[in-house]
Amino acid sequence: MTRINLTVDGAKVADDVEPRMLLVQYLRERLGKTGTVIGCDTSNCGACTVHLDGTSVKSCNVLAVQADGGVVVTIEGLAATYDGGELHPVQEAFRECHGLQCGFCTPGMIMQSTALLEENPNPTEEEIRLGLEGNLCRCTGYHNIVKAVQHAAGQRSGSEQDAGAQA
Amino acid sequence: MTAVQDAPEGAEKEIGRARRRKEDGRLITGRTRWTDNLNLPGMLHLAMVRSPFAHARINSIDTTEAAEAPNVVAVLTGADLADSQGVCINAWPITPEQVTPTHLPIPTDRVAFAGEIVAVVVARSAAEARDAAELVDVDYEDLPAAIGLKAAVTDEVLAHPDLGTNKSAFWRFDSAEAGTGGDVDEAIAKAREDGIVVEREFRQQRLIPAFMEPRSVVVDPTGEQITVWSATQIPHILRFALAATTGVPESKIRVIAPDVGGGFGGKLQQTPEEMIAFAVARRLGKPVKYTETRSESLMSAHHGRDQWQTLTLAADKEGNVTGLKVELLADLGAYVAIVGGGVPVLGAFMFNAIYKFPAYQFNCQTVLTNTTWTDAYRGAGRPEATFGIERMMDELAAELGVDPLEVRERNWIKHEEFPFTTVAGLEYDSGNYEAATARAMEMFGYDELRAEQKRRREENDPVQLGIGVSTFTEMCGLAPSRVLGSLDYGAGGWEHASVRMLATGTVEVVTGASAHGQGHETAFSQIVADRLGVPFESVEVLHGDTQVAHRGLDTYGSRSLVVGGEALVRAADKVIERAKPFAAHLLEASEDDLTFSDGRFQVAGTDQGIGLTEVAAAAFTAHNLPDGAEPSIDAEATYDPVNFNYPHGTHLCAVEVDTETGAIKMRKYVCCDDIGNVINPLIVAGQVHGGLVQGIAQALWEEAVYDESGTLVSGSFVDYLVPTAADTVSFEVDHTTTPALTNSLGTKGVGEAGTIASTPAVVNAVVDAVRHLGVNDIQMPCTPERVWKAIQGAGDGGPDTQGAAMPHFEGDGVAGNQEQPGTASTEGAGA
């Protein structure tokens, strides 16, 4: 067992974990952060995507011990750590554009989309598609996911005064 | 929205509005209830020990070491669980003589596919269970495996030696025998004399549904009812199967499908894993959980498609089709799944598609092999049929040298000819193929693209443009119970709904349909809001729990709206009917003078009225009701559809094919589907988009590949190519509206439309791009390698076309495209 200390969704947490424990297992099994899900075992699907120290990572591809000292944001804390609102603009955009159906890939998609827009606030459709290549969705055919990211980008560049199109 | 109790008069109708989904608030914030999220006190975790062999005798299983591993509670085999494990049922024996191997969740003596479970480890954590599963020592005696349809059908190697054959069932429909049309052999003979005969063999490769949420099951045996949470599409059918095969009374079982992350038919199953979890929980008296890994899911959750189709189409010289003969081989895998044998039979009614064929014969041989079982996958039988006929119509057009849309129009049912009884015996109630096609062509810019294609051909451009056409119809809204009965299906096809009018003005709606991503909560709320005249926000839709929705037949076959929605309409209408005498009493008026609209009963010719929710409150207090009245206006309805439901559409696809590399780039995809009246256009578009990509993926990328020993080579997301955002394009989707005549709302199913139509549209486009180079087919998935080989083969006719191009029905035995026993299904993909 190894002691880790980290910040998850704004809260400081400390635990003894097995060295082999994955970050996603730690989030789900130890912290009850079940909003982050596991969709595969080969790091292809991206359903478990979270932010670690400001960049998106597939949390099945990070050991919990590697996150020691880090700052993790999951889908559950995305809005609160952004501006304290109920929904992050990207979450709102996914709802507005019907960018989800069963919703299983959605936490990962939203986390990846958020990171994508951080890096590139005004992406082209192709840049969006390439930026989401590591996240699989089986329901939407990606059409409305791409639209949702475009919508979120437009909201951002469209109105500087307030990022939150609150629900 | 204005803050009023009842919907304001003349309020915008909910039906037809692009309402944002009620479901999304939870899903976008991670406030979800996936089965794997559940954690119960004292819960134990299961890991499955799975056979690495496709076919092997189990000589012995040594569980000693595993049982001693840390925190292991039990290691159990099939012998240990014995009768308590029940059996996986086949609900649809397609013939009385069907050969159906017994499917125990854990077999005791022999495994029949790689991935079959031979033992289960129970431990305090999932990780410890999995560690210990590695320690179970199984002594297998490898047996020869029946792999590949064409090899298996010869019975040289038997998937189940005790059965003596791999041939499970032969099912035929013949229009002459049925009295729905002429004799197909006569039509073919005549066309050989003086007409056109097109003969082709197509491969429907095996696919994996690949829902995003891996299957998971939790069983809690500690309550009065044993509670089963499962990532399933069919909680009601699962409860029935658990009770019917384990002896536990149905009333002692509660099944809950909480949030379910996609299904596409893949969760329309009673699985060994569910049966095992149920048996282990009962045996140990503790809650247990099993969640599969993705690799386990790909190798053991049922697969779809997997057919060889031999098609013979007869036409006169003008291109009027005179007959179609279909001969199918369909791979069942190792067991006949819950509706496994029936899936290809659903295609029997759809090969004639939107056309007026005078003669038709459908023959289907289902075959057992030592592979993962197959069953419903989005479209279930209808994509296979649509692919077959739409490829054939393109081949006929090529033969005639006319535009593929022209040959279709020559043969399709004209809009004024509805209702139309087809050669397969179905009555299509409505449709307008001309209108949908015209709209699709307009959106596509059909003539301009044809002109560009011509230009590129003339310029000998290395990148050629192909235009693919697919029209389709499907029978959805499964299903009239009598029809199911006539096909020997083991259950009905009705659906149930109830409406509860709560005292404070809100409404609970219970449906027996079981959503797993479709948006029922939103769409059904819209229907009820309009019907009862209550605000959309006041309606709560409850589903997926046998304790709440006590009657239901679940969600598959594009049935939820057209069957479940109709049940809901009828339940809502009953509420109004029940409320009417109460309203009359409260208004001191005659029932005959009351009208109901926008949520209010109104006394005709006066300003007197009362809201439905006020009547509900009056029914709750029951202080002032008519004498002897039962104090409730709640109502329920069970609806059995009178007919299937027939959406249709025209899909057009343009691809660019690099003739030097075989690479394919999708340039444009346009579709116009007629799905009748639309409840929520946003949800409809989403269903179409997702369906399109699944169908396109069959055409271009996905294939479940087995090697000759029966190992699934494409057993992870590294090898099974579910497309990404970067592989796909944005679509142009539109609708024409010809309301269905068999339900109150005029709706048709939409869940499977995109998948059914897109596969042939894409393959037709790819073939169209290179047809001038001598290619008339490319086996799916149309990988660059296959496309390139087809071009090369057509160019020089050399031997290197083996396995890629498809020169059909060559005289000398096995044609180049045909599956060599045990090898060819692996051709070109993954291997």
Q: How would you portray this structure in words?
A:
The complex is a heterodimer of chains A (167) and B (831). With 167 residues, chain A is of the alpha+beta class. Helices cover 35% and strands 15% of the residues of chain A. Chain A folds into 2 domains: 2-78, Beta-grasp domain (Ubiquitin-like (UB roll), Roll), CATH 3.10.20.30; 87-166, DNA polymerase, domain 1 (Orthogonal Bundle), CATH 1.10.150.120. A 5-stranded mixed beta sheet of chain A has the order 2-1-5-3-4, with helices on both faces. In chain A, a hairpin with a 2-residue loop joins strand 3 (49-52) and strand 4. Chain A is globular, with a radius of gyration of 16 Å. Chain A starts with a strand and ends in a 9-residue tail after the last helix. The model of chain A is unreliable at 159-167 (pLDDT under 50). Chain B is α+β, with helices and mostly antiparallel strands. In chain B, the strands form 7 sheets. Chain B has a 7-stranded mixed beta sheet with strand order 3-5-1-12-9-10-11, with helices on both faces. In chain B, strands 7-15-14-13-8 form a 5-stranded mixed beta sheet. Chain B has a 4-stranded mixed beta sheet with strand order 18-26-27-28, with helices on both faces. In chain B, a hairpin with a 5-residue loop joins strand 9 and strand 10 (226-230). At the A-B interface, helix 3, helix 4, helix 5 and helix 6 of A face helix 1 and helix 20 of B.
